[in-house]
Amino acid sequence: MEIAHEYVKLRSDFGRQCLFSDRHVDLVTDISPNPKLGLQFFQKETREIGVQGCFQMSEHEVNTIRSEYDNCGVNHVEGGWPKDINPLEMEQTIRFRKKIEKDEGYLNSMQVLGTLTGLCVGQNNAVDIYEEYFEDDELLDEIQEAPSTKTVNTLRDPNQLKRNVTSLSWDPNGGRSLAAAYSCLESQKTSPDMSKHSYIWKIENPNKPEMTLEPESQLICLEYNPNDSHTLISGCCNGQIVFWDTREGNHPVNVSAMEYGHRDPVYKTVWLQSETGTEVLSASTDGQIMWWDVRNMSEPTARLVLDLGWEENLLNALGAISLEYNINMPDTFMVGTDLGVVLYCNRTAKTPSERIVSLYDGHYGPVYALQRNPFFPKYFLTVGDWGARIWSEDINDSSIMWTKYQMSYLTDACWSPVRPSVFLTVKMDGVLDIWDILFKQSDPTLSVKLRDEALCSLRVHENGCLVACGSQQGVIPVIEISSGLCTLQQNEQDLMEEMLERETKREKILGARQGRGADNKEQLILRAEREFHSLLQTEQKRKELVSKQQK
Asked: What is the pTM for the complete model shown?
């Protein structure tokens, strides 16, 4: 593996400049000639070589054979008829056919030709002459290839005080640029000297960011507009929403007002599908979901308080950590909260009770990652504690698939955009896990130790081959995964759909059995209580009888 680094520095940065000055000649040492050494050398004979002052040129001429072409046409007419038979006259042709069919030579010829034709037809039915023998060889090689990764580049925070890489976003126009948000979420580690800048990197140039974003507060989330590679939306630690246009420079184009915005840090922002393409959605731990129009960010266009009591009380609201929005389902979105609950919401509803449609509870900690499967939007992936879970919209009580608990806390996860059965997770121990649930459900297909510190964020390129991971020390390793993990396999989509539907049916059956089991459990408890009381009464009567006999 070749790793190339390009260093661009001034000459003065390499060391102290050499300064020369005039001085008197000093004799450092004096070596006398040694005649004995002269005997070891011999003098070569002189040679004369002629040197031409210009290039040698010559003229060449080649004559090739010239081909002459002529265009001509052929008039194809029905042939094989005798001269006395006019093929255009139907009666003559019918009489001639009947005459020939009675000839013995014709019958013998047809028998021989029929045998040969039957043999050829049988060969064609037995062997497909159009079969492509090497069609699936490349696919088999990809399946048999061992999964692996290689590091493409490493992007490092240029500041002295390092910060977490809390969010990553690929450029939608080709994906050669990567936007990264840097922030320190631990208040005890912040200092006035800590930088507030975030950066846009070129993957080919890790030495210097392509562009520096200069907000008033550190950015926690940063997202490219999927329809415009020049505009971005971000959320800050102070609760503001910031709109960027890279054509306008390093400073934000529009910023939300503090008095009408979020009261806590904004952990997620997403672009919404709209006619104008300027609407965004933001989520914060203050328990509010806000709709914004980047053309006028003086106040949000709408808001939703995540209060399950339907009273819109911020004191009882669940803090929002993650958001999921699919352009194929523009009227709905999902929210991952800090109590491990996922809320399924309807953005077109008018009342808060109608906007929160259902909830999915299955994690012990905040839901840091939430994403629908790009091939089957009905199923979504969550990460909230020591494991990842796959859910179906039809089942609220339990997830349909889940990984076993890991030794380290999971911080982020996402689906592969090219393979429906592959998803990736990152952990606090600096390990990237790649899961292929069609191949193995209990353990990851590939685990790679990328950093010694925790990995905080994860983003996969749209081609599925490049993966960017953000670490706790501001380092972004960009790796390339093997072709077998980023190439759609044969019948994979159908097999994945069958697996998800089978697991959904299994959970429904188990849920129904547990419901009946709850009724049976209550009956068993009542039965046990009755038997217990009858035993007490029997024992009490026995003691009374024994006491009477003793008297």
From this structure: 0.67
